[in-house]
């Protein structure tokens, strides 16, 4: 079972990186909208795993994407941030249910799942574009990018989520 | 001591997070002030191979368009050749040639970020070195930034760190070509003095002060111009000839005299101090 989990996560890691760099970063919808679907890795990752490993793996995920996109360590910084805050967000979204051993993402309501995903995306995009533009004088540009790219990411992540749902885990 | 260890154990996740975040911030912030990292770029073996494989599939869809581009360029070159007024074969002494050209193919292109880089399927093996100029049939594209054995990353002109010497065609008024990160079809030419007469539609070409590009390579046309804050210099909006969203084959230019120029400049600078 544990081996199986590792295997699934490794496959997910590789596939999400490939899908991200080969498909979604070529979209350039309206010239600048490139949804970041690799955030689904953090959404799908098992909840009860070791937290330090999780943060490390997410850092690696971000860095791999950075290698492909020549974005220095922007993706790594924003991914490691949401990886660290994921338990906090989960406690906020799912309430006390999250503390129980039997808690599963699939059992939560649709609204809770979407809120969880949306919060991950918003935090990720805020960190990402703040660092990318790196100038608070351009805060409107940062907000514009978050407001346009965030929903695009959310929609595509939800589509991905329903395509490859994790009912059995 | 016990307490320090306890503290580390209790906050190990937080400390790990801070470490990794600092690490990535250092990499990122260094790139804002300076160039792309030597190690974190898509010219490495793995990403280069993956991009190349995917490009091998997708490039078939653009063959038709690529053919018409080539025939268009051939037509233009033949036109120039026939109207030059002398025989079409001129003896050339290869030792006197200043520029050599290497062809490459774009395997990854981006234009949606403030710092865009293009990856090309030629590398050190094909004698590509940093700071060589990259152009297409229509105009300039960027400057080679990093090379690996088989791949090269190019700092696109759509990069906020990009700074290229350019001038108005037919004159000797030089300025710097930069990008304000707003529109991928438009770059800015700054530092043109106020007394220079400008017309909308004038052509902008590369200047002679660059040791990277040959002179008079087309860049774009003047779309709009305004005076800057000091009211003495123009900021010109230049509409690019290149369609930056659709680039496949490129020419990489090597200036054989560049090492000499660089050496001379550094000697002169050394003498001043």
Give a description of the structure.
The complex is a heterodimer of chains A (169) and B (273). Helix content of chain A is 68%, strand content 0%. Chain A is globular and about 45 Å long. In chain A, helix 1 packs parallel to helix 3 and helix 5 runs antiparallel to helix 6. Chain A has one domain. Chain A is mainly alpha-helical and 169 residues long. Chain B is of the alpha+beta class. Helices cover 29% and strands 30% of the residues of chain B. In chain B, the strands form 2 sheets. A 6-stranded antiparallel β-barrel of chain B has the order 1-2-5-4-3-12. Chain B has a 6-stranded antiparallel beta barrel with strand order 6-7-8-11-10-9. Chain B is globular. Chain B starts with a helix and ends with a helix. The chains are: A mainly alpha (169), B alpha+beta (273). Chains A and B meet through helix 1, helix 3, helix 4 and helix 5 of A and helix 2, helix 3 and strand 2 of B.
Strand percentage of chain B lies at 25-35%
DSSP E strands of chain A, number: 0
Class derived from helix and strand content of chain A: mainly alpha
Over all CA atoms, what is the radius of gyration of chain A?
16 Å
- The mean pLDDT of chain A is 87
| SS content category of chain B | alpha+beta
Concise description?
Chain A is mainly alpha-helical and 169 residues long. Chain A is built from six helices and no strands. Chain B has five helices and twelve strands.
Any chance you could write out the topology, listing elements then pairs?
The complex is a heterodimer of chains A (169) and B (273).
Chain A: H1 2-22, H2 40-44, H3 51-69, H4 74-94, H5 110-133, H6 139-163
Chain B: H1 2-10, H2 12-33, H3 45-58, H4 63-82, E1 99-108, E2 115-120, E3 133-135, E4 140-147, E5 152-159, E6 164-168, E7 174-178, E8 186-193, E9 203-206, E10 218-227, E11 233-240, E12 249-255, H5 258-272
Antiparallel strand pairs in B: 1-2, 1-12, 2-5, 3-4, 3-12, 4-5, 6-7, 6-9, 7-8, 8-11, 9-10, 10-11
């Amino acid at each position: 079972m544990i081996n199986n989990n590792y295997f699934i996560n490794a496959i997910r890691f590789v596939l999400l990186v490939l899908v991200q760099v080969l498909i979604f970063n070529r979209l350039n919808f309206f010239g600048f909208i490139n949804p970041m679907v690799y955030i689904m890795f953090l959404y799908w990752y098992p909840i009860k795993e070791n937290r330090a490993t999780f943060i490390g793996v997410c850092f690696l995920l971000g860095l791999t994407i950075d290698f492909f996109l020549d974005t220095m360590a922007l993706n790594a910084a924003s991914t490691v941030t949401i990886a660290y805050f994921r338990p906090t967000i989960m406690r906020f979204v799912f309430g006390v249910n999250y503390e129980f051993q039997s808690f599963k993402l699939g059992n939560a309501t649709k609204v809770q799942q979407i809120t969880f995903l949306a919060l991950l995306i918003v935090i990720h995009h805020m960190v990402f574009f703040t660092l990318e533009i790196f100038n608070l004088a351009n805060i409107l540009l940062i907000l514009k990018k978050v407001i346009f790219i965030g929903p695009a990411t959310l929609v595509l992540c939800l589509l991905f989520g329903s395509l490859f749902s994790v009912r059995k885990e | 001591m016990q307490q320090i260890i306890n503290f580390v154990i209790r906050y190990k996740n937080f400390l790990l997070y801070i470490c990794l975040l600092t690490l990535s911030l250092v990499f990122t912030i260094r790139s804002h002030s300076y160039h792309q990292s030597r190690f974190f770029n898509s010219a490495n073996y793995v990403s280069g191979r993956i991009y190349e494989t995917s490009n091998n599939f997708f490039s078939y869809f653009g063959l038709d368009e690529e053919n018409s581009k080539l025939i268009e360029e051939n037509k233009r070159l033949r036109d120039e050749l026939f109207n030059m007024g002398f025989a079409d074969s001129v003896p050339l002494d290869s030792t006197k040639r200043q520029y050599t050209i290497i062809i490459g193919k774009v395997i990854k292109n981006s234009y949606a970020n403030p710092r865009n880089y293009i990856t090309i399927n030629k590398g050190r093996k094909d004698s590509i070195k940093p700071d060589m100029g990259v152009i297409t049939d229509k105009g300039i594209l960027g400057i080679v930034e990093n090379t690996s054995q088989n791949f090269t990353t190019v700092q696109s002109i759509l990069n906020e760190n990009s700074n290229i010497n350019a001038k108005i065609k037919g004159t000797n008024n030089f300025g710097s070509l930069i990008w304000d990160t707003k529109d991928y079809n438009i770059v800015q030419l700054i530092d043109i003095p106020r007394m220079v007469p400008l017309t909308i539609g004038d052509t902008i070409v590369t200047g002679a002060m660059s040791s990277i590009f040959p002179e008079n390579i087309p860049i774009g046309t003047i779309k709009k111009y305004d005076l800057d804050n000091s009211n003495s210099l123009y900021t010109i909006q230049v509409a690019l000839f290149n369609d930056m969203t659709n680039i496949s084959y490129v020419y990489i230019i090597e200036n054989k005299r560049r090492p000499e120029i660089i050496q001379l400049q550094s000697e002169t600078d050394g003498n001043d101090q």
